[in-house]
Amino acid sequence: MRIADCHITPVAIPDPPLLNAAGLHAPYALRLIIELVSDDGISGWGEIPGSETTRVALAQAAERIIGGDPWQLNAIFARIDKLAQPDERGATPWDNRAWVHVRSAIEVACYDLLGKAVGRPVVDLLGGAVRERVPFAAYLFYKRAGAGGEFGFERDPSATGWRAARAEAALDPAGIVAQAQAMCSHYGFRSIKLKGGVFPPDEEVAAMLALREAFGADIPLRLDPNAIWRVDTAIAVGKKLLGVLEYLEDPVRGQVNMAAVARELETPLATNMCTTSFADLPGSIQRASEAIILSDHHFWGGLRASLGLARVCRVFGRGLSMHSNSHLGISLAAMAHLAAATPNDLYDCDTHYPWQDGQDLLAKPLPFEDGSIMLPREPGLGIEVDRERLAQLHQNYLNCGLTERNDEIEMQKLKPGWEFQATRW
Ligand code: GKR
Ligand code: MG
After folding, report:
1. Which residue among 79, 313, 315, 394 is buried most deeply as judged by most CB within 10 Å?
2. Phi, psi of 421, deg, nearest 5
3. What pTM does this model have?
């Protein structure tokens, strides 16, 4: 079998006005969809965060792998690595590197192809499942009213249930609790994460305490201010939330600061910002900067690389959770296969999917049952892409005019002069 063709489709998915440390989500979140077609006519799919820089890199890589054998992933990666340029994660909550994402897109699409070719699910190509259900966490955001997409800051008048609730504003503890109740009752999530770094820390402490009060001690809670606090602020917040948080995610920037906070707190620290590559791991281990690392096959360079990270975590006694950005069902399926093949005890994985639910490009979106995705058992990723829907999401992309994520610019539309600060409080 050879890779005969490759199609890269940028898409834009309606995304509500969610707030974070870097500003505000745009009305659309960008993704890149890759389809690899084999010479015997099988399609393999991958999905990664969209940006023009990544699209250009992916197109270059795709050209190089045409004619390659998808079973020979090491050779395919060697071809890609010859092209790869040094790039940087950046200070934003999301990861700006192009080439790790390129590797991931191509690897996932190859695995989907291979699974379909041999009639086995991707999880089996990764060594087989250690769990059949993959639990996810509710991912709460402070937000302005509105549903995103064509509805901008308006509510979507046709929405009901969670889709109606997700257009509500949530700007204080009561709003966050209401959002959590709507999301958890719809999906059945049994853990909750709040995206912080938006309001002065004491307001976010109040939101966490309100969640604890509303949900009780059996529902683990996490707070993630995306590294926008000073060390002293993080220590003070961590002490106020002692016994309330399952973990505190990226309270400060960089491993040295994380280690300084970790020394003062009993609550474990987690990261998807301070330790994000294999080159970062020795520093993380030596400094004991994080107790938990969030894997993410999109930016750790693929599924096999993420299993490599899982092994390092096992060897060094680090916990493992999973990071997410706004995404569609191809990514969700890949996350589920990866989590199912990961032998570590996993924290409930992050997913932004509820914010995109109902807008997927899958013919049959993967359902959540009691907060979990049941591992698809069909060949490959176990999904079918609806090409009409893909074309619509591509049209959104052409219409919306966005080519890179920039939450600061979106915030400036509401608050002229607002600036992202790497450390704010
Ligand atoms: O979508 O605003 C967002 C998040 O802040 C996202 O970009 C982060 O990468 O979810 C992420 C995180 O855990 O840091
Ligand atoms: Mg995070």
Report:
1. 313
2. -120, 130
3. 0.97
In whole angstroms, what is the distance from residue 411 CA to residue 287 CA? 35
Beta bridge partners of 223: 194, 248
**Catalytic residue at 415?**
no
Q: What are the pLDDT digits (tens) for 126-178?
A: 999 999 999 999 999 999 999 898 877 777 788 888 999 999 999 999 999 99
Strands 372-374 and 133-135, by their bridges, are antiparallel
The answer to whether 139 touches 352, Cβ cutoff 8 Å, is: yes
Q: Is the CB of 247 under 6 A from ligand 1?
A: no
* Rounded-to-integer distance, Cα 179 and Cα 170, Å: 7
Q: How does DSSP classify residue 389? A: H
Cα separation, 338 vs 334, in Å, equals 6
Q: Please work out whether the CB of residue 195 comes within 6 Å of at least one atom of ligand 1.
A: yes
In this structure, the strands spanning 245-249 and 269-271 are parallel
Give the start-end residues of each E strand in 314-409. 319-322, 368-369, 372-374
93 lines ligand 1 (CB under 6 A): yes
For 364-400, the pLDDT digits (tens) are: 999 999 999 999 999 999 999 999 999 999 999 999 9
